[in-house]
């Protein structure tokens, strides 16, 4: 998470939180991607924990305004690389499903880098609305204003990793792999 320091290209006030792509998301040959952009109840490297329900109000406001969460490259607002067709909370985290636009140069590059394993992270760009403190001194993010979900190079949630992408239509295998990885990450 680049909490407290924004790059020159990042939006003012934007905070970021990362999760490893290879554990919680998949990419298909045609550029469709899906998975989890954030996981509930797991501390990232800075000690911050996103709580279940943290995205609900923001997602509702976006739907009501007819807006969508942006799919960016490395949190750069000048580099949209696709569209998120679905962004919703479930019991595990923030589930996303979308498409990389391979007609856009950076979208095609992102797909190639994902396939090669050079990029393996998803990261949310957000503003904290309500937060408490965890016993370990990090933040407990209770409500966030979600702005975007990016493909990134360096994830902040290293516990969420997987070894392989899931073939189209194999949701059960994807869910089982994710459940196993989360269990391992939590030490169960």
Automatic annotation (TrEMBL):
Protease is among the record's keywords: yes
GO MF annotation terms: peptidase activity
Prohead serine protease domain boundaries: 29-165
Keyword Protein transport attached: no
A biological-process GO annotation: proteolysis
Highest taxon of source: Bacteria
Keywords, alphabetical: Hydrolase, Protease, Viral release from host cell
A Pfam family it matches: Peptidase_S78
Xref: NCBIfam families: proheadase_HK97 (TIGR01543)
Protein name (Swiss-Prot/TrEMBL): Prohead serine protease domain-containing protein
Lineage: Bacteria, Pseudomonadati, Pseudomonadota, Alphaproteobacteria, Rhodobacterales
């Amino acid at each position: 998470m680049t909490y407290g320091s924004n790059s020159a290209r990042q939006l003012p006030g934007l905070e970021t939180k990362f999760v490893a792509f290879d554990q919680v998301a998949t990419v298909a040959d045609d550029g469709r991607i899906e998975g989890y952009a954030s996981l509930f109840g797991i501390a990232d490297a800075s000690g911050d924990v996103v709580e279940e329900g943290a995205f609900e109000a923001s997602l509702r406001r976006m739907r009501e305004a007819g807006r969508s969460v942006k799919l960016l490259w490395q949190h750069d607002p000048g580099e949209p690389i696709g569209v998120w067709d679905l962004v919703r909370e479930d019991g595990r985290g923030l589930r996303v499903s979308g498409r990389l636009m391979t007609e856009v140069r950076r979208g095609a590059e992102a797909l190639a880098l994902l396939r090669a394993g050079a990029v393996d992270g998803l990261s949310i760009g957000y503003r904290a609305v309500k937060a408490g403190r965890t016993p370990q001194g990090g933040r407990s993010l209770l409500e966030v204003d979600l702005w975007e979900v990016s493909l990134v190079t360096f994830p902040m949630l290293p516990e969420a990793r997987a070894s392989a992408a899931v073939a189209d239509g194999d949701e059960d295998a994807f869910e089982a792999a994710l459940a196993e990885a989360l269990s391992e990450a939590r030490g169960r």
